[in-house]
Write a structure and sequence with these properties.
Length: 292
């Protein structure tokens, strides 16, 4: 349980600072970044599978149709999430992207209740309600439907649900997910080369950063995959507020995106909800220890 909490927190912190990485690569088209991200993630995962001696488990999962198909579908779901996020960051929508990851915990908690029959007590429901009000006000404050936010929230919510429904070593599951989309990525990059749409004269640092997309993609997903299997899905959802908060601060402080009164209200609601949820979790854990 403790390892699950800390690995999940680690994943969200890494995701929170990723806008800085994608901004560094903003001269590269979003589609090319995504394709590089998929290819190098797959190669990195193959090395990890070799290092952890999980080839047999990987092969068994591939031979099991239900498991293989579920995680291959997950590969396309998370790839859609990656593309929208990269595009949003590099087109000045970091705050709208962070809104998506504020909404996502609510999606995760709803899925936790509906799909996994997890229960929330009165204080937890109150926390969900406060966070929902903040997200609703922020959504209405945009004056238009924030499609970036809702695509990010829904795709990652269902991605996490598959992880929870089919427990599998995070390395193995990510190997299957990236295997599913690698052929598409390679075909896309080949087409970009043939049509002279890849700039080979980019600086060495850009090429190094493109190679590094495999690590910055796979590492937090491995941590998240482990955490999602070892802690309640409702807790996975609430810890998720860490990443968008970091991204929101980066968007406002580093890249000077507008931070309105709607953002202030939503931010206050969400952190108040986190306080109530965390306080309730501490009280419940303390009572359990006393009973033991």
């Amino acid at each position: 349980m403790n390892k699950g909490v800390w690995t999940t927190i680690g994943a969200y912190v890494m995701w929170g600072v990723l806008p800085i990485y994608w901004k560094f690569l903003q001269e590269v088209p979003s589609g090319q970044i995504l394709a590089h991200r998929i290819v190098w993630s797959f190669l990195f995962i193959l090395l990890v599978l070799r290092w952890t001696n999980q080839w047999k488990e990987f092969g068994y999962a591939l031979r099991h149709p239900a498991t293989r198909n579920a995680f291959m579908l997950n590969g396309f779901i998370v790839s859609a999430n990656w593309f929208v996020y990269i595009w949003a960051v590099n087109h000045g929508y970091i705050i709208e992207a962070s809104l998506g990851y504020y909404i996502n915990p609510l999606v995760s908690m709803v899925l936790g209740v509906l799909v996994f029959r997890e229960s929330l007590n009165r204080v937890q429901w109150m926390a969900v309600g406060i966070a929902s009000i903040g997200v609703l006000v922020l959504t209405l404050g945009y004056g238009s439907f924030p499609w970036i936010s809702f695509v990010l929230a829904s795709t990652f919510g269902f991605y996490g649900m598959v992880k929870k429904r089919r427990p599998l070593a995070s390395t193995v599951s990510l190997g299957i997910e990236t295997l599913a989309v690698v052929p598409v990525a390679l075909i896309f990059l080949s087409n970009q080369v043939v049509t002279d749409q890849i700039a080979f004269d980019m600086s060495p640092m850009i090429w190094v950063a493109l190679l590094g997309t495999g690590v910055v993609t796979a590492l937090p997903l491995l941590l998240f995959g482990y955490g999602a299997q070892h802690i309640p899905f409702t807790l996975v959802g609430f810890l998720q507020f860490i990443a968008p908060t970091i991204s929101l601060i980066i968007g406002v402080v580093m890249y000077h995106e507008p931070f309105t009164a709607y953002h202030v209200f939503a931010f206050t609601c969400i952190w108040l909800a986190i306080f109530f949820f965390s306080w309730n979790s501490w009280v419940v854990a303390r009572k359990r220890r006393q009973l033991i």
